[in-house]
Amino acid sequence: MKALEWMGDSLKILDQTRLPVEIKYRMAATYEEVAEAIEKMEVRGAPAIGAAAAYGYALGAIGYSGELAGLSAHMEKVQHRLAETRPTAVNLFWALRRMEDRLRDQHEAKELAEIRQALVAEAESIAEDDRRVNRLIGEHGNAIVTAEANILTHCNAGALATVEYGTALGVIRAAQQAGKKVHVYAGETRPFLQGARLTALELMNDHIPVTLIADNMAGFLMQQGNIDLVIVGADRIAANGDTANKIGTYSLAVLAHAHGIPFYVAAPTSTIDLKVPSGQDIPIEERNPKELREVFGVQVAPPEVPVYNPAFDVTPAKLITGIITEKGIVTSPYSVNLLKMMVRS
Fold first, then answer.
1. Which of 163, 194, 169, 209 shows the shortest CA–CA distance to 46?
2. Domain 4-135: homologous superfamily in CATH
3. Among residues 20, 66, 154, 312, which one has the fewest Cβ atoms lying within 10 Å of its Cβ?
4. Residue 296's pLDDT is what?
5. Strands of 25-28's sheet, edge to edge?
6. Is the pLDDT of residue 345 over 80?
7. 214: alpha, beta or left? (left if phi > 0; alpha if psi -120 to 50)
8. pLDDT 10s digits, 75-131
9. What is the per-residue pLDDT across 28-37, written as a single tens digit (0 to 9) for each?
């Protein structure tokens, strides 16, 4: 199953809200359809959101039928619509900046067709970069996995969250392919259940041993000595190493620290936002209260109960053992070492 696939004039998006019960695709032919798919979490995961937004931007140009002189104003509208879909995942904004830069490079183009072709090529490049980068993350991350390891992960940072292979699950895949005996504990990840619905499905399809647990069982497993390592993905990493990821990640980091268990973040360098000094400056998306009052249409709480539903939390850098990127593994002091890595790249 691919999270997304370019079909030449539309974007084929796997509707992940239907998994694992049903495999259904959306054929997005306009940028508005791509924006809706991102908002509704049909496509999710920071790298996949970035790639989808890039294709959505290209579709904005493909769908434009006005004069060449009016394209710039139209594409500003397209970019704004895509940018407002999910505020926390920085890959979204990184991809849109790349697309905007490619559009500016076409200022001497005389035909719309030439510009459209260039934008599609840039979106394809972003997608291909993600495939390559995730494999490198896996290669680097394999070094921190012992010959036999029980690994805890949270949410879904696998192939379904990227164009291909995955970040946190990419490390696990690389370890298995290297002949290591890995067993994964997947937290269910309330309220949207990405761990139960997506991570468990991915790992089972790849014949990687996995056990599903409720989110509130992690501490007990650590206390029993059943967790050797925690690996999670990321939606935005601040300049000081503070990391925004799916809600519940911070709790796991605190538990891992209390039990002396290594806690790693796996993410591409496109997730690092040096313009954001610390986690306090990362915008945190708050989602629809219905996601807590209901579970897939079944009411599980009083309909009038007040709800607080942040989609992400921020793990302080001091709780992170290392950040696994395609450039290597970065360790503390993050303010220094992340900057060094980004300057070199």
1. 163
2. translation initiation factor eif-2b, domain 1 (1.20.120.420)
3. 66
4. 87
5. 4-6, 11-14, 25-28
6. no
7. beta
8. 999 999 999 999 999 999 999 999 999 999 998 898 999 999 999 999 999 999 999
9. 999 999 999 9
SS3 of the chain: CCCEEECCCCEEEECCCCCCCCCCEEEECCHHHHHHHHHCCCCCCHHHHHHHHHHHHHHHHHCCCCCHHHHHHHHHHHHHHHHCCCCCCHHHHHHHHHHHHHHHHCCCCCCHHHHHHHHHHHHHHHHHHHHHHHHHHHHHHHHHCCCEEEEEECCCCEHHHCCCCECHHHHHHHHHHCCCEEEEEEECCCCCCHHHHHHHHHHHHCCCCEEEECHHHHHHHHHCCCCCEEEECCCEEECCCCEEEECCHHHHHHHHHHCCCCEEEECCHHHEECCCCCHHHCCCCECCCHHHHEECCEECCCCCCCCCCECEEEECHHHCCEEEECCEEECCCHHHHHHHHHHHC
Detail the residues annotated as belonging to a binding site for substrate.
44-46, 86, 194, 245-246
Token readout for 233 is 């993905």
Could you list the active site residues? Answer: 235
Q: What residues form the annotated binding site?
A: 44-46, 86, 194, 245-246
- Give the CA dihedral 81, 239, 314, 85, nearest 10 degrees: 0
Mean pLDDT of 268-291: 97
How far is it, in rounded angstroms, from Cα 185 to Cα 283?
29
Sequence ranges of the domains in the chain? 4-135, 143-344
Residue 159: exposure state from Cβ atoms within 10 A (0-12, 13-18, ≥19) = buried
CB contact set of 125 (below 8 Å; sequence gap of 6+): none
Which CATH number is correct for 143-344, 3.30.870.10, 3.20.20.70, 3.40.50.10470, 3.40.190.10? Answer: 3.40.50.10470
Share of the chain above pLDDT 90, in %: 97
